[in-house]
Structure formats: C-alpha cells, structure tokens
Amino acid sequence: MAPVQDFRHFAFLPSRVDSCGRSVGSRLYWKLYAIENTVRVVIHSVLSVQISANWWAVAVNGKTITRANAFRRSYAAKPRNAHPGTHDIYLLFLTDLTEIIRANSHLFTPIIPSTNQWIAILESIRVPRNLVGHMNYPNSFDENAIDHAYSQLPVLLAQLAARPIPILIPK
Predict the structure, then answer these.
(1) Theoretical Cys-Cys bridge with 55: which of 30, 42, 51, 171, CB 3.0 to 4.6 Å?
(2) Cα–Cα distance between 97 and 122 in angstroms, integer?
(3) 66, exposed or middle or buried, with CB in 10 Å at 0-12, 13-18, 19+?
C-alpha cells in the first residue's frame, strides 16, 4: 500500500482527508498525548516533593496562572462538555510545561540530571506538536522529532524512579 500523503497536494476528496487524519493519529498523535501527559506527571511529582502539594502557586508564573484560570472559566461555562482534570496543569500547553521545567530547573536537576536535555527535547517538538494539534500534516523531520522525544520517555521515567520520588498523578 502506498504511504499516505498530505491531502492538500491533490484534488479534494473526503477520503484523502480521512486517510491523512487516520495516518497522523495512528503514527503521531498518541505519542504526543503520551509525551505531554508524562511530562505533566513528572512535573507534578518532582514539584510536589521539592516544594509541596501546592507547588502551583509557587512554581508557575502569574501570566500562566491567569491564562489557566481563563481556560478553567471557559470549561465551567460549558458543563456538558468533558473537562480536563481538576489540577490546573491540565490547562497548559507544551510550551508552558517546558517553561515550568526551565524556571524550576534547580529543583528538577538533582532528581533528573538530564533536565536541560529534556528542555531541548520538548523545544524540538514544539512546532511539530502544534502542527499535529492544529490538524496539519507533518513532514519527516517533524515525525522524527516526535519519535525521538517519545523514545526518550523511558529514560526520563528511569531517572525519576532512581530517586525517592513517588509518581504522583495530578487529578
């Protein structure tokens, strides 16, 4: 079977749009889901131990907190729709998560020695993540960046497990 190609390079057919969506979803979207949510868990776990269970108010800048509050109000106004978790970390973008790690790297590095590498990895998938998240078709460079970031998740989790840090899932 021929590889799926970006539908925008051909005459419009709904089946081409469907094929592109299925291809991107089955190859990349689930990896981005795993990356972002694993990073959320790691941030919450590290900062809960290093600061306290109420790390949010201490470790997150005011602009990000304000934006998260606006998103929370938006979800509250639509009670019939699914909502993110109760923790505000679920209201953040990948760039926000990266910035939390960067701003608090002095708390992450003793637990995760590769903190700076993780900041670089997350920055390397910022554009590809936005392409996929906004339903665009990534190229092979973008796919490789996502694949690389996903392949490094076991390394990140192994570093966390090597320290006495419990895995804490934000609710």
Answers:
(1) 51
(2) 9
(3) exposed
